[in-house]
Structures are given as structure tokens and as C-alpha cells.
Amino acid sequence: MIEEKVILVNEQDQPIGLMNKLEAHEKAILHRAFSVFVLNDNNEIMLQQRAHQKYHSPLLWTNTCCSHQRDVETNIQAGTRRLFEEMGFQTELKELFHFIYKAPFDNGLTEHELDHVMIGYFNGNPEINTEEVESWKWMSIEEVKMDMRIQPEIYTVWFKIIFDEFYHYLEEHKI
After folding, report:
1. How far is residue 146's CA from residue 169's CA, in Å, rounded to a whole number?
2. Is the pTM here over 0.85, yes or no?
3. Max Cα separation, the chain?
4. At what angle do helices 141-150 and 157-173 cross, to 10 degrees?
5. Residue 168: Cβ-neighbour burial (10 angstroms; 0-12, 13-18, 19+)
6. How far apart are CA 82 and CA 67, in angstroms?
7. What Å distances lie between residue 126 and 56, 58, 96, 161, 173, CA to CA?
8. Which sequence positions are flagged as catalytic?
9. pLDDT tens per residue, the chain (175 residues)?
């Protein structure tokens, strides 16, 4: 299997090259990524628990899906593709905002990403890909915020950062 490449970018999100995903995470080089938040009619977020065999952050809870754009994809195309690959459903996605963050892991890897945050709406049950996802659940936005304070260790490092940005965006824009 060919290792997936990520799109290296500058702080203005202009592509400056490609690099193997693992190498970019080892060297903490800024690259393009995306995070998808799917909400239902009750304003609950669909969370996923990462599969136990993932090479980092296994069994931790995170947003509905996140990954990296491929060289020829738009942000929405990448989010739609990965949402279907991981969670087994499609829904219309809308890009809300993007920001840069850096999050080191215990295993020596670092996420240094220009993250495009997207939102979609869905009321069904996903058909999870067990290679990627261990479990899933719906939680209200306020429940997630409170639970992160009580037991932060069960959430991915990046989700804690991204959720905070997402929460403030929702507050500001009354979504």
C-alpha cells in the first residue's frame, strides 16, 4: 500500500509541496487537514471512538471524522469522502472556518495542521468502518464541553482544541 501524502501549506493555506503523512507528523510540518462535525435535529454531535488498532490515539473519542485532503480534492470533497469511508453515510457539508494548531502526541508525533472545520446534518445511524472506528454516540454540545472538563483523557488531543474553536464559532454565529 502506498503511504498517503499530505499537502504542505504555508500559513495562508497556499500549497508548497507534498509529503508522506507519517513524515509530516514526525517533523511537525504544517499541512492541510479537515475536521467534520455532524449534528442531528436535537443539536447533538455525532462522536466517534477511534479504532483500537489506530497507530495513535486508539480508543479515544473525537469529532465525527477528520483526515487530510488529497492533492486533487477540495475541502468539501475530502470531507465527504472520508465521512463515507469512516462512518458509512453521506450528507451535505459546509465549511465554517479554518485555523492553525499544533498538538504533540505521547508517541513523538505532532499534528501541525491548518484545519478546515466543516458541519453537516444527519439523523440516522452510521454504518461504521471497524478498521477506523470502534464505536459512536450522539452527545449534546454542552454535554461534550462538560465531559471534556471531567475526563479530558478520553478525548483526542486535537478534538479538545478543535471543539473549543467550534464551540466559540457556534456562539458567535448563533448556529
Report:
1. 17
2. yes
3. 44
4. 140
5. exposed
6. 7
7. 23, 20, 23, 25, 28
8. 66, 113
9. 567 899 999 999 999 999 999 999 999 999 999 999 999 999 999 999 999 998 888 999 999 999 999 999 999 999 999 999 999 999 999 999 999 999 888 778 899 999 999 999 999 999 999 999 999 999 999 999 999 999 999 999 899 999 999 999 988 887 6
